[in-house]
Amino acid sequence: MRRPMILMSTLTVTALVATGCASAEPATAAPSPAPADDCPAPPAAGFDTPDGWIGLAAERPEDIAFVVDTGDSSVAARANRDQPLASAVKVVHLVAYARAVADGTLDPDEQVPVLDWQRWYAPGTDGGAHIAALNRLGIPNDGTSPLDPAATVRLDDMVSAMVRESDNGVPDYLRYRLGDDALRAAASAAGWTDFTPPTLVGTNLGALDPTVDRDDLWSLAQRFAFDADFRAGYAQNVTPPDEAAILAYYDRYGPRGSADDLARVYRAVADGSLGAGVDDVRRQLEWQSAPEPFTAMGFKGGNLPGVLTHGFEFRGDDGRTAVVVWLTHGLDAADYGAAMENLAAHQQLLVDAATDPAVVPRLACVA
C-alpha cells in the first residue's frame, strides 16, 4: 500500500505549553459494532503506534470521539458530543471561500495587500505557521513582517496557507470579509446546521490575557487587527494563566463542534453533494498524495493545548469515498507533547481506518 506523508496543521500558543450542542442526527449510517464476545482485550494505550491510539479510545472515552465511514462499513463513538475542534474547523471557512468564488463574490486571483493579511497575525501564537506560509509563497520577511509593505498576495494563495500551514489569520480575514452569515450558510450547505463562527486569532489572544471578555473574542480580534496602539501593547503587563487554566480555557473558548458535524462537511466534499464550490474545496484540501485504493485525499487537522483533531475525505476514480474524523481533548501537557511527537502514528491509524477493512471492527470494539 502506498502511504502518504501527512503534514499536521496547527492552532497553537507555543509559549504557554510545556511542550510546545450536539447534532440532531448522526452523519453516518448506524455503526455495527462487533458483539462483545468477539472483541479481544483492547491494545495497550499509547501515543506511539496506531494500536496505541485504539487503546486510548478504550481507556479514555471521555476524551475521544470519532466517525469512520468507508462506504462499506462505518463506526462512530460519541459522535454527537460537542468537543473542541482547533484548526479542523477551518474546513468551513474553506467552504465559505469556495462558495463565494463560485457566486462571484470573491475573485481567487485578486491581489490582496500582504498588510491586510498581516493585521490578523499575532506573532508567537501560531507555532510559526504564518511565517512558514510567507516563506512558501515567496514573500520576503524578517521573521515577523513582510519586508515590502507594498507587497501583494493572490487571494487563492492566502487560502492555501490556511489549509497547508494552518495560518490563523486567513480564516479571521475571511470571516471579517464575508460575514458570519456566509460562514453559517457554508456549514449548512454541508449539513452542519448549528455552526457558530469562531475566531482563531481571538482564541489565542484571549489565552494571553485572562482579563479580557472571553465571551466576545471576535471583538478582541478585530480591535487587535485595526487598532495599532492596542495591538502594540497587547498583553504586555499580564501574567498568562497556569497550565490547568489554559487547558480549561481552550476546552471552553476554542472552536467547537462534534465529530458528526465535521463528518458531514467531509462527506459533502467527498461525494460532491456540497454543490457550488466543491471543486475548489477539493483542490485546496487534496494537496497530498492518496493511499491506495483512493486517488484523492483531503484533510485538515488542528491542535492547541490539550486538543488534537483530524478530518479526512478520500475519493477513488470508481466513485468510492471514505470519511474519517477523530477528535481528542483533555490531554495534559505531557500527553499532549507525546501525541504531537508521535503524530504520524495517529495519522496512520486514520488512513488505515479508511483503507484497511480490518480496522473498523477493531474500532467498533472500543466505541
Strand order of the largest sheet: 2-1-9-8-7
- In the residues, how many domains can be counted? 2
End-to-end separation in angstroms reads: 26 Å
The percentage helix is 40-55%
- The SS-based structural class is alpha+beta
> How would you describe the shape?
globular
Determine the strand fraction and express it as a percent band.
Answer: 5-15%
Major β-sheet, in short? 5 strands, antiparallel
What is the chain-wise order of helices and strands? HEEEHEHHEHHHHHHHEHHEEEHHH
The value of Rg in angstroms is 20 Å
Q: Give the low-confidence spans.
A: 1-35
Brief descriptors of the model:
single chain, 367 residues, alpha+beta, Beta-lactamase, 5-stranded antiparallel sheet, two-stranded antiparallel sheet, 16 helices, disordered N terminus
Structure explained in plain terms:
The chain contains 16 helices and nine strands. The chain is an alpha+beta fold. The protein folds into two domains: 147 residues, 3-Layer(aba) Sandwich (Beta-lactamase); 157 residues, no CATH class. It has a five-stranded antiparallel β-sheet, sandwiched between helices. A hairpin with a 5-residue loop joins strand 8 and strand 9.
